[in-house]
From TrEMBL, chain A:
<dbReference type="InterPro" id="IPR029055">
    <property type="entry name" value="Ntn_hydrolases_N"/>
</dbReference>
<keyword id="KW-0808">Transferase</keyword>
<dbReference type="GO" id="GO:0032259">
    <property type="term" value="P:methylation"/>
</dbReference>
<dbReference type="InterPro" id="IPR017932">
    <property type="entry name" value="GATase_2_dom"/>
</dbReference>
<dbReference type="GO" id="GO:0047148">
    <property type="term" value="F:methylamine-glutamate N-methyltransferase activity"/>
</dbReference>
<keyword id="KW-0489">Methyltransferase</keyword>
<feature type="domain" description="Glutamine amidotransferase type-2">
    <location>
        <begin position="2"/>
        <end position="295"/>
    </location>
</feature>
<keyword id="KW-0315">Glutamine amidotransferase</keyword>
<dbReference type="Pfam" id="PF13522">
    <property type="entry name" value="GATase_6"/>
</dbReference>
<protein>
    <submittedName>
        <fullName>Glutamate synthase family protein</fullName>
        <ecNumber>2.1.1.21</ecNumber>
    </submittedName>
</protein>
Length: 295, 226
């Protein structure tokens, strides 16, 4: 089944509450997906590029990582360790060297961007949220996922969101039937997925379209023509938030909009605690129709 | 009216109270704080009146028999699924497959219904004041679907003997579904349904759709119709 949630704030004053609001939405969706959970949160822009990495042995892997990396990159690196994840801020222009160095150390890169940080692990959504302190996180928008695994194994890397380009991430409810064909096409184009997960193929597809010059809306529109299967996608970019459902629209989706925010949930009950939900405009996104918001 | 507050009571307790209703003196109930919960007021089998204050999730009033259920908010997928008799009224919108496989009774949706409204309906009457989504009345076998607004694509795909009345536009008709003549008996039937559903519309404004009956038995000459 999987549960997906998203929240895009229109007003600055709600920013400190973003993590709190998204966490309630995520935990409510636990019985749609108790295998693993993840969240991508768009916070403040950093001075350099933020790289979120994960390790199963964080105590040893993150010990002195910032110092070691700053020597390799020849510039200051700051590090914020949260449970199994660390967010490293690296100097501008050192992206490729940093990814090489992190790869050599056996660290898994969850995502990178100027604003985006990604936290995902296997386990119940409430436990995952508590481990990462998601409630305390501030930001402008974010997306989250509770996973019921269908197309690939229950692993940290198989959890959503998937990020395949800077500040871009995707969560998905459904299953794609042509992901192996698309995997070959995308690999040839230089957007090779790293895992066996079908959602990562969709993320790579959208990233490839954006790299070719499409905006978020056009890239999401392309999924309707090129991806086969059942899907409800919710996508985040540095400044945007988008939603699309396949033409059959089997997978549930509901949206709410007020003057303060746009919210997405697999079910209405994910919205029950949102402020002003009683008077929000609530609707079900139409099949094969792209919805997106940019700030 | 006996209140059943879902912020204080478990769903099973709420439904068990409603299902035990004939043994008590209460015939009217009010469910508070449903907050999108699933399976609210399901499996009722007594002539009781239940008002749900707020919005519900999946399968609200499923399998209803005899009871009148009134939801003041919106409902999730599968409202009144497999209803046998009684009445379910939704003030807001309904998600996918409203009234699916219903055998009898009346389902009224005052807002819009989503895709697959009345899928495989088997005798239920459904009146939607707004629009309905794609693949509605797919394989509908018996009963009446009345839509005051517009219908999405593939209306009545592979339909049997159910009658479909639409006032607005129809995006497309599904396999074996055709427009049919509105005869006096259909006007009379529609008047009665509109009145029961509290709908402000004239039966003459509607068009009727139903089965061309080409797909009842497999005929190789009709293979392209499937």
């Amino acid at each position: 089944m999987c549960g997906i949630v998203g929240l895009f704030l229109k007003k600055e004053d709600l920013r400190p509450k973003l993590g709190d609001m998204l966490t309630d939405m995520l935990i409510t969706m636990s019985d749609r997906g108790p295998d693993s959970a993840g969240i991508a949160i768009y916070g403040d822009d950093s001075d350099g590029l933020k790289v979120t990495v994960q390790s199963d042995t964080p105590e040893s892997a993150f010990d002195g990582l910032d110092t070691a990396l700053s020597e390799v990159l020849g510039g200051p690196v700051t590090m914020k360790v949260i449970d199994t994840h660390a967010v490293l801020t690296i100097p501008a222009g050192s992206r490729d060297a940093a990814l090489d160095a992190l790869g050599e150390k056996g660290l898994r890169v969850m995502g990178l961007g100027e604003a985006m940080e990604i936290y995902k692990e296997i386990g119940l959504p409430k436990d995952v949220a508590a481990r990462f302190g998601l409630r305390g996180m501030a930001g402008s928008h974010g997306i989250g996922h509770t996973r019921m695994a269908t197309e690939s194994a229950v692993t940290t890397l198989g959890a959503h969101p998937f990020s395949t380009a800077e500040d871009q991430c995707l969560v998905h409810n459904g299953s794609l039937s042509n992901h192996n064909t698309m995997r070959r096409i995308l690999t040839e184009k230089g957007f090779a997925p790293k895992t066996e997960n079908d959602t990562e193929v969709a993320a790579c597809y959208i990233s490839s379209r954006i790299a070719e010059g499409a905006n978020l809306g056009e890239a999401l529109d392309g999924t309707l023509a090129d991806l086969d299967g059942f899907f409800t996608f919710v996508m985040g970019t540095k400044t945007g938030f988008g939603v699309v459902r396949d033409p059959i629209a089997c997978k549930p989706a509901v949206m709410a909009e007020t003057d303060d925010y746009v919210a997405f949930g697999s079910e209405y009950r994910a919205f029950a605690d949102l402020p002003g939900i009683e008077t929000a405009r609530i609707w079900e996104p139409e099949p094969a129709t792209v919805y997106f918001w940019e700030r | 009216m006996q209140p059943l507050d879902m912020s204080q009571m478990e769903l099973r307790e709420v439904n068990a109270t409603l299902q035990a209703a004939p043994a008590t003196n209460y015939t009217q109930f009010e469910i508070l704080n449903p907050r999108g919960s699933h399976a609210v007021a399901v499996g009722l089998d007594a002539p009781i009146a239940v008002t749900v204050r707020g919005s519900t999730g999946y399968y609200c009033a499923g399998m209803n028999k005899q009871a009148s259920v009134h939801v003041t908010g919106s409902v999730g997928p599968g409202v009144a699924e497999n209803m046998m008799s009684g009445t379910v009224v939704v003030e807001g919108d309904a998600s996918q497959y409203a009234g699916a496989t219903g055998h009898g009774g009346l389902l009224v949706i005052k807002g819009n219904a989503s895709s697959r409204c009345g899928i495989s309906m088997k005798g239920i009457d459904i009146v939607v004041h707004g629009n309905i989504g794609h693949m509605s009345a797919f394989m509908a076998q018996k009963g009446n679907l009345v839509v005051l607004g517009d219908a999405g694509s593939a209306l009545g795909d592979s339909i049997y003997e159910a009658r479909l009345f639409v006032r607005g536009s129809v995006a497309s008709l599904g396999a074996d579904c055709i427009e049919k003549e509105m005869r006096p008996e259909h006007i009379a039937l529609l008047s009665e349904l509109l009145e029961k559903a509290g709908a402000d519309a004239k039966p003459e404004e509607f068009r009727r759709y139903g089965s061309a009956r080409k797909l009842y038995n497999f005929n190789i000459d009709h293979a392209d119709e499937y």
